[in-house]
Amino acid sequence: MDKRGRLVIPKKLRKKLGIMEECYMEVNTEGDKIVLKPVKSIADEYFGVFKVEKWPKDLDEFLVKEVTRRWLKDT
Q: Does 43 score more than 70 pLDDT?
């Protein structure tokens, strides 16, 4: 750990867990342990589900709107 409290996660672990550069991480504790969990974006969850002609600037925002629109249409 450096002076600022940053840790380096070894490359093998990052690859195994699918942790990419600038990935958001969920940080929790379990007893005396620190638990790190990669947080997938909405875009990752819905990759390949929607076909778009042009990529939106904010893919997460687009997906939230599209999922909401489809949900409202089906209800």
A: no
